[in-house]
């Protein structure tokens, strides 16, 4: 896509725009997901209203140059008070979306065996971003 085509596309009206930026390694293949729109929504209500499965799940995602494809929210000092870290958004084309095992609203309890209990949103995000490229184990309680 040329720069002028991208500019025209960004200026055109659309109900939703998915924008993924970054540099791919030549060995990485990129495909768009056809997952339902709700997979890519964001958490905009009090996460304390969610119900979670009692059993933790461990999911291994692959961190690439664009991360693992999810955003976090909640934590110590959040707008809703001290809350667990939750998945705020899943980005189309990322490892989290491709796995199909993580949902918006799932509670993240550990990142590579580092507990997120008592962390702020920024601390949890820094922990996730500091992982090297490659496999990253995310432990969650699934939202039910």
Strand order of the largest sheet: 1-6-4-5
* Assigned CATH superfamily: PDZ domain
Q: Helix fraction? A: 10-25%
- Assigned CATH class: Mainly Beta
CATH architecture: Roll
Give the class from helix and strand content and strand pairing. alpha+beta
The topology string of helices and strands comes to HEEEHEEHE
Write down how many β-strands occur, each being a DSSP E stretch of 2 or more residues.
6
Taking pLDDT < 50 over at least 5 consecutive residues as the criterion, the unreliable ranges are: 35-40
Give the CATH topology. Answer: Pdz3 Domain
Q: What would you call the shape?
A: globular
How does this model look, in words?
- InterPro entries: PDZ, PDZ_sf.
- The chain has about 140 residues and is α+β, with helices and mostly antiparallel strands.
- The chain has a single domain, classed as Pdz3 Domain (Roll), CATH 2.30.42.
- Helix content is about 15%, strand content about 30%.
- It has three helices and six strands; from the N terminus they run αβββαββαβ.
- The strands form two sheets. It has a four-stranded antiparallel beta sheet.
- The protein is globular, with a radius of gyration of 16 Å.
- About 5% of the residues have low confidence.
Main attributes?
Pdz3 Domain, two-stranded antiparallel sheet, 3 helices, 144 residues, 6 strands, alpha+beta
List the helices and strands and how they pair.
Blueprint: H1 3-11, E1 57-63, E2 70-78, E3 81-90, H2 95-99, E4 107-111, E5 114-115, H3 121-129, E6 134-141
Antiparallel strand pairs: 1-6, 2-3, 4-5, 4-6
Protein name: PDZ domain-containing protein
InterPro entries: PDZ, PDZ_sf
Domain PDZ: 58-130
């Amino acid at each position: 896509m040329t720069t002028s085509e991208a500019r025209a596309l960004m200026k055109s009206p659309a109900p939703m725009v998915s924008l993924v930026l970054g540099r791919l390694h030549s060995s990485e293949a990129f495909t768009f997901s056809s997952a339902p729109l709700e997979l890519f929504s964001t958490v905009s209500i009090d996460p304390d209203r969610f119900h979670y499965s009692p059993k933790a799940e461990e999911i291994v995602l692959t961190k690439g140059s664009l991360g693992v494809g999810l955003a976090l929210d909640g934590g110590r000092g959040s707008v809703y008070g001290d809350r667990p870290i939750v998945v705020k958004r899943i980005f189309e084309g990322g490892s989290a979306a491709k796995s199909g095992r993580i949902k918006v609203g799932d509670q993240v309890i550990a990142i590579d065996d580092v507990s997120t209990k008592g962390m702020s949103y920024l601390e949890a995000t820094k922990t996730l971003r500091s992982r090297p490229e490659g496999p990253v184990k995310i432990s969650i309680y699934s939202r039910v």
